[in-house]
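Support request from a user on the community tier.

User writes: "When I paste my structure tokens into the form, the page sometimes reloads and wipes my input. The last time it worked, I copied everything first. Here is what I submitted, just in case something in the input itself triggers the reload:"
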């Protein structure tokens, strides 16, 4: 079966966004707290102008360009611009130290870096001599520091070319092939040493074509992009949203998320498990401030426990008590997410059956998924049509699975990467003789084909911001 929204490269996705005629394709919050729209045409023109600047600075197809910043419209524009010219972006967590950034920039061989703020510029500029960097572009254009190129200066006048298309630029965009490198993403290993995951346009596109099946996304949907775009999960999610014309709103600071949810009122919410755990804790904390509210929450959860399966099947229980609890309690929990979310997806780390059951008990089904940076990222996913609580879902139809003697999950398919950047010895270790990638996770399939992750060879922790942290260096 050919999935809806099929693309061959990420540039196919960009072309779809540019041609959508959507006046509110992106939203971003200005300094006054107001949400400002960016249209499909503005996306095209800004990407075209920025790609042209990169070319003028000597960048060419295959070159790596570092991207360091929080979730904001400039991040997405930079990503599309790098991909449009066939270059390779290297997203780096803005929480890293300057020394850590320098190590990654140097390893990737980046000559251009795009940073979000003065803070990020200062960190990188202080270690600039340790890198090959020629230019640093800064997104915050007000009072740019010496040595930085203002983003606004580069894009000046881009919006004036409304509805005009550049055939030379379009030809360059179309010339990028599935086999061409798209991104180099650094991820921690069990030792905490970063290694660059090399992903092509075709590998990410293959995952994009199958991951969203059964979700029925439409242009009426809305998403808040808040998980770090330097992580593949958040970035792949935004790509899916753009594919289906879903409005994407950028939230650059995690502490602004509650207010953003009230204002944007998203219909799709994707977060790491820690985000859901924090919301549960806040609901229980507020209820604990009043004996009456505490008893009311306990009663509502007890009522909901009897209807978990119905909720998890995407249906509303036909029960007077449940409907009463929904009106008094469950609706208030949904309001914490903006009150309009129809699809909740936790990912990036194990959810935990207790958290899944608690949310089902308050009327919310969480569709857990599983994947790795190396697999672009989704391997398996629960959906409204096919799901099992406690499982990470059914494998995507274009991914093959098998299990080693010790139960380790091995995967193969068009979305699986070919190896780590400049690490031939490591590549020999992580693939078996037949080309199956070793995930490092112990798993099994049940009789119905649902995948369960039961143990992990990797000992990595994920923070609420979505960053993977290796405990060994911290312990040391």
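"...and here is what came back when it finally went through:"
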């Amino acid at each position: 079966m050919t999935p809806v929204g099929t693309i061959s490269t990420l540039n196919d996705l960009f072309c779809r966004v540019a041609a959508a005629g959507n006046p509110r394709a992106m939203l971003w919050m200005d300094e006054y707290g107001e949400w400002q729209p960016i249209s499909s045409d503005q996306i095209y023109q800004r990407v075209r102008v920025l790609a042209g600047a990169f070319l003028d600075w000597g960048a060419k197809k295959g070159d790596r360009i570092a991207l360091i910043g929080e979730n904001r419209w400039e991040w997405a524009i930079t990503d599309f611009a790098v991909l449009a010219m066939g270059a390779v972006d290297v997203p780096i967590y803005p929480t890293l130290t300057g020394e850590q950034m320098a190590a990654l920039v140097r390893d990737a061989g980046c000559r251009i870096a795009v940073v979000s703020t003065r803070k990020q510029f200062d960190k990188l500029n202080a270690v600039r001599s340790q890198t090959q960097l020629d230019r640093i572009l800064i997104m915050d254009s007000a009072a740019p520091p010496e040595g930085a190129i203002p983003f606004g200066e580069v894009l000046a006048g881009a919006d004036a070319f409304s509805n005009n298309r550049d055939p030379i630029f379009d030809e360059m965009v179309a010339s990028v092939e599935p086999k061409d490198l798209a991104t180099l993403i650094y991820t921690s290993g069990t030792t905490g040493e970063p290694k660059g995951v090399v992903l092509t346009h075709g590998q990410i596109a293959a995952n994009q074509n199958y991951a969203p099946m059964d979700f029925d996304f439409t242009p009426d949907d809305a998403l808040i992009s808040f998980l770090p775009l330097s992580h593949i999960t958040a970035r792949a999610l935004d790509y899916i949203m753009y594919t289906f014309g879903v409005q994407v709103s950028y939230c650059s600071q995690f502490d602004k998320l509650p207010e953003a949810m009230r204002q944007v009122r998203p219909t799709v919410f994707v977060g790491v498990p820690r985000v859901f755990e924090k919301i549960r804790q806040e609901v229980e904390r507020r209820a604990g401030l009043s004996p009456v509210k505490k008893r009311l929450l306990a009663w509502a959860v007890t009522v909901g426990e009897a209807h978990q399966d119905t909720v998890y099947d995407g249906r509303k229980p036909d029960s007077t008590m449940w409907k009463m609890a929904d009106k008094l309690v469950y609706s208030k929990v949904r309001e914490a997410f903006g009150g309009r979310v129809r699809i909740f997806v936790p990912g990036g780390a194990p959810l935990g059956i207790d958290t899944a059951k608690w949310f089902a008990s308050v009327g919310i089904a969480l569709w857990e998924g599983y994947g790795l940076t190396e697999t672009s990222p989704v391997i398996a996913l629960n959906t409204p049509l096919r799901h099992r609580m406690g499982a990470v879902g059914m494998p995507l139809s274009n991914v093959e699975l098998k299990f080693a003697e010790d139960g380790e999950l091995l995967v193969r398919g068009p979305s699986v990467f070919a190896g780590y950047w400049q690490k031939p010895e490591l590549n020999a270790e992580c693939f078996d003789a037949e080309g199956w990638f070793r995930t490092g996770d112990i798993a099994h399939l049940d009789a119905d084909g649902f995948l369960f992750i039961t143990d992990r060879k990797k000992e990595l922790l994920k923070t609420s911001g979505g960053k993977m942290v290796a405990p060994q260096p911290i312990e040391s």
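Agent notes: The reload is a front-end session timeout and is unrelated to the input. The longest helix spans residues 40-56. The first strand starts at residue 26 and ends at 29. Escalated to web team.
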